[in-house]
Amino acid sequence: MTHRDYLWCAINLALDGEEELGRLCPSCRVEAQEERCPVCGAAARDCGENGGFDMERFLEMGGGV
Q1: Cα-flanking dihedrals φ and ψ of residue 43, to 5°?
Q2: Distance between CA 31 and CA 24 in Å, rounded?
Q3: Per-residue pLDDT, 19
Q4: With 0-12 CB in 10 A as exposed, 13-18 as middle and 19+ as buried, what is 54?
Q5: What pLDDT sits at residue 38?
Q6: What gap in Å lies between CA 26 and CA 24, rounded to an integer?
Q7: DSSP codes of every residue in 7-53
C-alpha cells in the first residue's frame, strides 16, 4: 500500500466513526465518546489505578529517578 492508500483508509475510518456517532441520541453519544477502561468497560475516571503496577520495578527498569 502507498502512503496515499493509508491516508485514504484513515480518513474513511474517521468519517465512518462520525457517521456512527451521528446516529446516536445525544445522551448515548456522550457516553460513547467517554474514555473507557479496556478491561472492565467502566469510565476511565472511575476505574482507579492499576493494582498490578509496581512503581519500584518500573523505576528499576527505567534506570531510576
Answers
A1: -55, 140
A2: 10
A3: 95
A4: exposed
A5: 79
A6: 6
A7: HHHHHHHHHHHHHHHHTS-HHHHHHHHS-B-TTT--BHHHH---TT-
C-alpha cell belonging to residue 33: 465518546
Model pLDDT for residues 21-59, shown as the tens digit of each residue: 999 999 999 988 888 877 788 777 766 677 788 888 888
Flag whether the pTM goes above 0.90: no
| C-alpha dihedral, 43 to 47 to 53 to 56, nearest 10° | 110
Helix 3-22 to helix 26-33 angle (10° resolution) is 140
Q: Which amino acid is at 26?
A: P
